[in-house]
Amino acid sequence: RKEVEQDPGPFNVPEGATVAFNCTYSNSASQSFFWYRQDCRKEPKLLMSVYSSGNEDGRFTAQLNRASQYISLLIRDSKLSDSATYLCAVKEDTGRRALTFGSGTRLQVQP
Amino acid sequence: DGGITQSPKYLFRKEGQNVTLSCEQNLNHDAMYWYRQDPGQGLRLIYYSQIVNDFQKGDIAEGYSVSREKKESFPLTVTSAQKNPTAFYLCASSIDHDPTRTQYFGPGTRLLVL
Fold it and tell me: How far lies A45's CA from each of A32, A34, B13, B94, in Å?
């Protein structure tokens, strides 16, 4: 079983739709959680951190469920510019502190 | 501008050749990382360094080597022992002492085998 798993998609949604992605992680020692956005042939860019109480940034909402070991990303009112691959990443509070990434979920917003 | 730079953007390697990918940051970050990304896949950790003159193997270190002689620089050498080097290589850095702080990435280097 992979440490961090995501549905690869693609998720094809019309403009204005609401779409949600989940990401499950296997290591209960994971301490910090993040969503990155990666455009085609570009580097990942931080979209948002995920806090225990859930957090919102404009049209984006991230949530963490420690009991079930998953994080989620909700995008409301999808824009064409939201089309990208969304990577979740988890970080252990151990000596390594490197991020472990999921394989990404591809979103295609259609006009 | 503060940030992470990687060079070259594209790199071609011949059979049996060692090549070195550059990564420089001026963010004063302690920790630096190298990841490899294959098409349709997530990022896999090659090497990381949390302090100057120290580095550790990641999950797929075989066929790679690194050095950390300066805080701002973390070059990666892809040796001839790496039999499948074609991939997108990403360097990242972070403030290491705060685990809630995430990593920021350079623009990447695409390595292709001739």
Answer: 16, 10, 28, 13
How near does any CA of chain B get to the CA of A12, in Å? 17
Q: What is the pLDDT of residue B97?
A: 64
Mutate to test the interface with B, among A43, A46, A90, A96 (most CBs of B within 10 A): A43
Which pair of structure tokens corresponds to residue A59?
């049209």
Closest Cα to residue B8, out of B25, B24, B31, B30? B24
**Residue closest to B107 by CA, chosen among B5, B34, B36, B3:** B5
pLDDT, tens digit, 9 for 90 and up, residues A55-110 = 999 999 999 999 999 999 999 999 999 999 999 999 876 667 788 999 999 999 99
Nearest by CB to A104, which of B42, B56, B92?
A: B42
DSSP result, B47-101:
EEEEETTEEEE-SS-TTEEE--SBTTB--EEE-TT-S---EEEEEEEE-TT-TTS
Q: Which residues of B touch A25 (CB under 8 A)?
A: none
From B89's Cα to the closest Cα of chain A, the distance in A is 9
The residues of chain B scoring below 70 in pLDDT are 1-2, 97-100
Tell if the CB–CB gap between B31 and A49 is shorter than 8 Å. Answer: no
- pLDDT for position B2: 65
